[in-house]
Design a protein that fits this description.
Blueprint lengths: L1 H20 L16 H5 L7 H19 L4 H20 L12 H4 L1 H24 L5 H28 L1
């Protein structure tokens, strides 16, 4: 338990620093920003306590809100993502799998992991950019931001997962 908490804390710090120092400065084509920290919530084990998952998501969101100047947007989005994650993951996990399962290419299979990742990122991006823009007058920019950020984030998560699988 203690070693798992230490690993989660290190991952938390890594994703917060990378997002705040690198990815928040990147705006591909002026609207797409990679949101790699969603990977942090994706990689929790299947039977992780729901309250703990939501607490990690909220704290990460508040930390990112502090460094990104998006008051409440990331924290609300990460908390919602943490709330829907157990039900969404249950759709992709085989019935006879271990409760200690950590979502990955090897545990879910490549197709299931990609679909699971895409669903998580879509939910996050829609909520995040809807709260950030909070208007319906610039629908094209809203859609471009969601689709561009979703594509960048999914590609980065899959690359990270591939790199982790290789070690």
């Amino acid at each position: 338990m203690r070693i798992e908490f230490f690993y989660k804390l290190m991952a938390f710090l890594f994703f917060c620093l990378v997002q705040a120092l690198v990815f928040n400065q990147m705006h591909v084509l002026g609207f797409a920003t990679p949101l790699l920290y969603v990977y942090f919530i994706i990689k929790f084990r299947y039977n992780y306590p729901h309250w703990g998952l939501m607490l990690w998501g909220f704290v990460m969101g508040v930390t990112l809100d502090t460094f990104s100047n998006t008051p409440g947007v990331a924290s609300a989005s990460m908390t919602l993502l943490s709330a829907v994650r157990p039900a969404l993951l249950a759709l992709f996990v085989p019935r006879d799998s271990s409760p200690e399962l950590v979502p990955s290419f090897s545990s879910l299979g490549t197709a299931r992991f990609v679909y699971y990742t895409m669903m998580m990122v879509i939910i996050y991006c829609v909520v995040f950019f809807s709260l950030e823009m909070f208007t319906i007058f610039n629908v094209l920019y809203w859609a471009e931001s969601i689709l561009g950020s979703m594509a960048l984030t999914v590609v980065l998560i899959l690359v990270m997962e591939n790199v982790r699988r290789g070690k």
